[in-house]
Write a structure and sequence with these properties.
Elements lengths: L19 H12 L2 E2 L11 H12 L12 H15 L9 E4 L2 H12 L5 E6 L5 H7 L3 E6 L9 H7 L4 E7 L11 H11 L5 E5 L19 H4 L2 E6 H5 L7 E4 L2 H14 L5 H10 L4 H4 L1 H15 L6 E2 L7 E5 L8 H12 L1 E2 L1 E2 L12 E5 L4 H11 L6
Parallel strand pairs: 1-11, 3-4, 3-5, 5-6, 6-7
Antiparallel strand pairs: 2-8, 7-8, 9-10, 10-13, 12-13
Helix pairs in contact: 1-14, 2-11, 3-11, 4-5, 4-10, 13-15
């Protein structure tokens, strides 16, 4: 029995209910489905990282870190970014450790977007962008990535920019399409935002997961864009510890000052033992430089195992996702297809329509290959049994 409320709430997000991810999770649990849906590894992280965090706890690093984050971690991050991308962020004022990348995204939007502003973003999109913008009294402007390659139509972006445009949200490598931005994309973005007060919020949580020799084209790689960008990334995605909820932001000091104003009243500082562990672990560049090769092998394993399935796989250039098309053998909606896969075949995926505010359905489902090899092979085996309908 639930507790009755004496207050009638006035919802700020009246149209937001249980997400498809929760629905799929519950249905999957009921049918004990193989999990190719969740963007989280089912394999362990490096034991050295666990030992480093455990040792930090035993040594008494269990109280608040400094508000911006452990100095040693901020310093090693600044060194890492300088070495990889050639951008010199000041560890004392331009690097912030956050309680997850999601918190970093929220704080950047809350700190820099005002009521009445407009924020351009690209769909399919991570589901938090639009609601967080709306919570600020601002208007999210969704532009659809072009099919079939999920490219940004920069002419559409130009047409969408108004005097009220305050922010453009970028995500590369992209979830869920698994596509990446190029140098040409960065040049287009720089040209469109030049001589404006538009902030670029760049979600780069998969920055180290690129395939086939591709180079990460993040905002820190472009001098002009770096000056107007807040870059958000994730330790959890990089080091297979999504449950630890630690991320970071990079931004010019003037922008970071506004993000920090929100951060200090949300949580003050991220978890201290994890920060100590990451500061030590990041001293070994192999821990992130090997990530692309690691996930490319998993991508290729799943793709090869799905060779006899009825699904057509779209290219995956980065992240740990790939999209699969089924419109050539079924006219089911993607939500119906996903439910059928769980109930009839015991494998869980995600419908791409969940990443569109208007529910656009292109008969595509998202697969995660952040799984151990046995799970990938079992999932592929189940998908190979799907029959046309």
């Amino acid at each position: 029995m639930t507790l009755s409320s004496a207050v009638a709430p006035r919802s700020k997000l009246p149209d937001v209910g249980t997400t498809i991810f929760s629905v799929i999770g519950q249905l999957s649990a009921q049918h004990n489905a193989i999990n190719l849906s969740q963007g989280a590894p089912n394999f362990p992280c490096d034991p050295l990282l666990v030992e480093s965090v455990s040792r930090a706890m035993r040594e008494g690093h269990n109280q608040y870190a400094s508000m911006l984050g452990l100095p040693a971690l901020r310093e090693v991050l600044a060194e890492k970014v300088l070495g990889l991308y050639g951008r010199d962020y000041d560890a004392g004022s331009e690097v912030l450790i956050t309680g997850s990348a999601s918190q970093g995204l929220y704080m950047a939007i809350a700190g820099l977007v005002h009521a009445g502003d407009e924020v351009i973003f690209f769909e399919p999109a991570f589901d938090s962008y639009a609601p967080v913008v709306r919570l600020q009294g601002a208007t999210p402007i969704a532009l659809k990535l072009q099919q079939p390659d999920f490219a940004i139509n920069w002419d559409e972006v130009h047409a969408a920019i108004t005097p009220r445009t305050r922010m453009i949200i970028i995500n590369t490598p992209h979830n869920p399409s698994a596509q990446v931005l190029s140098d040409a994309d960065l040049a287009q973005l720089a040209a469109l935002t030049r001589h404006t007060d538009i902030v670029v919020l760049s979600d780069e949580v998969y920055e180290h997961i690129l395939f086939d020799g591709r180079r990460h084209c993040g905002m820190a790689t472009h001098a002009e864009l770096a000056e107007r960008s807040v870059v958000v990334s994730s330790f959890g995605k990089t080091f297979h510890v999504t449950g630890w909820r630690v991320g970071y932001c990079l931004a010019p000091a003037a922008l970071m000052e506004e993000v920090v104003k929100v951060h200090q009243f949300m949580m003050f500082s991220a978890d201290t033992p994890m920060q100590v562990g990451f500061a030590e672990y990041l001293r070994n560049p192999h821990t992130w430089l090997s990530l692309g090769e690691f996930y490319q092998r998993k991508r290729d394993l799943l793709a090869q195992a799905l060779g006899d399935s009825p699904f057509r796989l779209l290219p995956s250039a980065g992240s740990f996702f790939m999209l699969a098309s089924y419109g050539h053998f079924s006219d089911e909606s993607d939500s119906e297809m996903v439910k059928r896969l769980i109930v009839d075949h015991g494998v869980a995926t995600i419908p791409l329509s969940a990443f569109y505010t208007d529910g656009t359905d292109n008969r595509l489902i998202r697969l995660s290959f952040a799984k151990d090899d046995a799970t990938l092979l079992l999932g592929a085996q189940a998908l190979c049994q799907v029959l046309p309908r």
